[in-house]
Amino acid sequence: MALVTPLDPNHDPETKQLAEFFNETLGFCPNSVLTMQHRPAISKAFINLNKAVMANEGRVTSALKRMIAWVSSNATGCRYCQAHAIRAAERYGAEQEQLDNIWEYRTHPAFSEAERAALDFSLAASQVPNAINAEIKERLYQHWNEGEIVEMLGVISLFGYLNRWNDSMGTSIEDGAVESAEQYLGKHGWEKGKHDGSRY
Q1: For residue 108, how many C-alpha atoms fall within 13 Å in the half-sphere facing its CB?
Q2: Is the pLDDT of residue 200 over 60?
Q3: Exposed (0-12), middle (13-18) or buried (19+): which is 1, by Cβ within 10 Å?
Q4: Helix (H, G, I), strand (E, B), or coil: what is residue 159?
Q5: What pLDDT digit, counting tens, does each position of 119-130 carry?
Q6: What DSSP string runs through 46-98?
Q7: Average pLDDT over residues 175-197
Q8: Contact criterion met (CB below 8 Å) for 159 and 81
Q9: Are residues 170 and 195 in contact, defined by beta-carbon separation less than 8 angstroms?
């Protein structure tokens, strides 16, 4: 079971209203948010940050933002966030070929050089120690402007928070997220791990 029990979706009316955002992105309110409700100021601040980070202000598409989130979550090993990110990428129109080959983004023809630069940025920024260097910066600036780079790093940083939260919490993973993860990530060994609801 999770470190802390998620609260009922009706526990905090303001969080419930804000959390309707996730019905669009995931098709359900995530257990991570239901757990954050133990301190409603955290759940509300998190949802508002999530909405701001995921808003489209330039050419960084909703699908690419979710693939950036997946690469970040894959780098840190959070299986809960890997599943959520690939599900959201699917729901936001990522190409089928990209979803099927996300593990091979560096070489697969379904990904453009601009997308590869963004995804490599996510990978480098999510490592410990941080691996951002002059080459990553140069490749980013070949394809993206400063505002778009800020959007990307917003996604990476948001998922840094989520990766820590969900992996430490052992957040129980929802059925819809499991379905997407098994479809797109299962062939590479994805499994629920500590998020199966029975550990801790």
Answers
A1: 15
A2: no
A3: exposed
A4: helix
A5: 999 999 999 999
A6: HHHHHHHHHS--SS--HHHHHHHHHHHHHHHT-HHHHHHHHHHHHHTT--HHH
A7: 90
A8: yes
A9: yes
